[in-house]
Fold these 3 entries.
Entry 1:
Amino acid sequence: MIPLLAPDEPPAVVTLRPDGASPFLLVADHAGRRIPRALGDLGVSESELRRHIAWDVGIEPVVRFMADQLDAHAILQPYSRLVIDCNRPFLAESSVAKISESTPVPGNVKLTEDQIAARRREIFAPYHDAITAELDRRQRESRPAFLVAMHSFTPVYKGVSRPWHSGVLYNRDSRFAAFVLRLLREEDEMTVGDNEPYLVSDDTDYTIPVHGEQRGIPHVAIEIRHDLIETEADQRAWARRMCRVLTEAKRLRDQSYGIR
C-alpha cells in the first residue's frame, strides 16, 4: 500500500480551538486547495486551481474569525476538492471529479480502485473521523452540539449570475436552519437563498446528512458568495454577522423547545 501523503506534507485535518466552550462545531469541507505532491497538479492549470472549482474561496479565514469570536471548535479540510470532495458520498460522480464545471481534470481519469481508496483513506476519512470523534465526545459528556458547515459559492456558475448574498441549506430537518434563514433575511439589503444556490440531499452531500441528520442534532449549512469575502475586512464582517445570527438562532431555538 503506497501512501498518498508524504511524511512532510500537512495532515488532512486542521483543528482550531479544540477546547472551545461554544456549543457550535464549525466545519469546512473545502477550506483549502492543496494537492498532494504525488498527484502533481492533476493536469489543471494554476489559474484554474485558484478558482472555486478547487476550493471554497474565502471560507477558511471566515471560519477562523468565527472560531475566535465564538470560542468554537472548528475542523477544516485543507486539500482541494479536486483530489476528493469531502462533502460527497463515494458513489457520487463528483466525489473524484473528472470534470469540474467545464474544466477537465486529467489526473482524475482512469484511476485504479487503489488510487481512489488512498484518497479516501488519507484525506476523506481523517477529516470525517475528526468530526465524528468530536460529536461522540460531546454526546458522552452531555454537551450540546450544533453543527455548522461553512461554504462559499461562485457568483457566476456556467454563465448564470447568482443573486444571493448567502444561502441557508438543509435536507429533511429544517428546524434550526429556519431560524438562521429568518435572521439572515432580516439583515439589511440581504438576498438569502432558501436551499439556494444548492439543495442538500443524501445523493449529493455527506456532511449534513451523516453528521447532522443521522445524529438528530441541530445543524445547518451556510453558503456565502465568495466575491463578498475576498478581503480580510469583508471576512471579518461576515464572521461577525454569522456569529451574531447563529447565537440568536440558538437562543430562539432553545426558547421554542423550552430549553434553558
Entry 2:
Amino acid sequence: MSSGKYSAISGAVARMQMLENISEHLASAKVPGYKKEMVAFEAKLGEARSGMATKGTNYTHLTKPVIDFTPGHIEHSGDPLDLAISGDGFFRIQRPDGSFGYARKGNFTLNGDGTLIDTNGYPVMGTGGGEITLPNSDVSIDLDGTIWDGSTRVGQVGLFRFADTSVLKRSGGEMFIPVDGTQPEAHPNPKMSQQNLEASNIDMMKTMTRMTTNLRAFEATQKALKIYSDMGTKAADIGLVQ
C-alpha cells in the first residue's frame, strides 16, 4: 500500500471523528449551560522506513478535545427555580456516590421532600455545603443566590469557581469534575439571575458551516482512496504482463 493511501485513510478517519464532534454540538445546541468541546486537525510526520531520511508520510489526526467555557447568552424562562450564572462560576451538584460535580445548567426543581435538585435528580448544594430544602417553589432569589420565602431567608445557592478550568473534564452531558482532585473556591462575587437560563455556547450557523466543509473534505478523501486503489490495481495488472 502506498504512503499516499495511508495519508488518505488517516485523513478520512480524522474527518469522521470531526463530524462526530460536530454532530454532538448540533444535538446539544438547545441544552441549557452546555459547553462545547473543540478539536483541531494536526499532522504527524511518520518516520521513513525506506532508508531515505528525507522521506516520510504525513498522517492526520485530531488534537485532544478542549472544553470551551465561554458563557452562552441568557434566555428568559419564567420558572422561579431557574437560575442563570452571569460571568464565571459553577453550581455544585452532589452525585449519587457522594462526590461533587459542577455545572452551569440551572433549570432546577423540587423533589418530594422539597430538596432543590437538578434535571438528573441530584441535590444542588448551598453555600454552607449542604442540601437546600424549600417550603415551595414560589420563592425569590437574589443575585448572590440567597433564597427568600416572603421575608424569610430559607437558603442560598452556592456558586464556585476554579482558578484554572482546564482541570475539568466532562462527566456526563452538562456536568464537569476536576481530573486531579483540585477543589474550587467559593465565588467571592456570585451573580445569578432568577427565571433565566444560560443557553449553550454553540453557534448554529458556524456549526452548520463546519459540517458542510467537513463533509466535502471527507468526500474528497474517499475519492483519493479510490484513485490510490485503482492505481494499485493497475500496477498489479502491469506486473502480470509477460
Entry 3:
Amino acid sequence: MRGADAIAGYLGFPRRTVYHAVSKGRLPHFRLGETLCARKSTLTNWIAEQERRAA
C-alpha cells in the first residue's frame, strides 16, 4: 500500500495515528522516497502479533 491514507484505511485508524505510530517505531513500514508504504501481509502479521501479546 502506498500512502498514509491507504494504510489508515486498511487498519481503520485515522491518518494522524498512522503517522504517530510510524514516528514512534510502532508500525511496520518502509518508504519509497518520502511516501509511506506498507505491505498488507506485514500489517496483518503485525496485528496478529499485537493480539497475541494482549492475550
